[in-house]
TrEMBL record:
GO terms for molecular function: protein heterodimerization activity. It is found in: Nucleus. The lineage of its organism: Eukaryota, Fungi, Dikarya, Ascomycota, Taphrinomycotina. GO terms for cellular component: transcription factor TFIID complex. This is Transcription factor TFIID complex subunit Taf3. Its main location: nucleus. InterPro entries: BTP, Histone-fold. Pfam families: Bromo_TP. Residues 7-83 form the Bromodomain associated domain. It comes from Schizosaccharomyces octosporus (strain yFS286) (Fission yeast).
Amino acid sequence: MEGSPKNDIYFCLMRVFCSQTLRAAGLDRTKLSLLDSFTDIMIRYIQLLSETTMAEAELSRKKDCDLQDFRLALEEVGLLDGTEEDVKEFIEWYHGPQMDELRRVAGFQPASETQTKPKDWLTNLVQKQVRVSGPERFQDTMFSSAVQNNPSYPT
């Protein structure tokens, strides 16, 4: 993974993904060396999975991969056994709380009625300034009338 700046950028992007994955799993902090090792393992695993998926598609004499090829690749690398029970566990995990947290961290969680879209800091600041005008906007600053009228305040 060393060498070109292009690879370094991809490694850094994957490191962000891995740190968010660890956070979703409940690990809030880790050593940088451990995160780099985890990122390298994840890159190698995804590369193995993609190469195996392509090999499965080529065995079926197809140009493009499909879900069946991916499932067979998951079985070949040992993630799935191919049994119905194993597939059900995978589906339950996919719809479980860890994946919900991963979707939330990644920004892919669907908006519900209770959730509101957060405002960015600039919109928040503009709305705050619009609401406060006149002498009130200097409250708790050195320009407030309370501070200026106080003789004990050093000028």
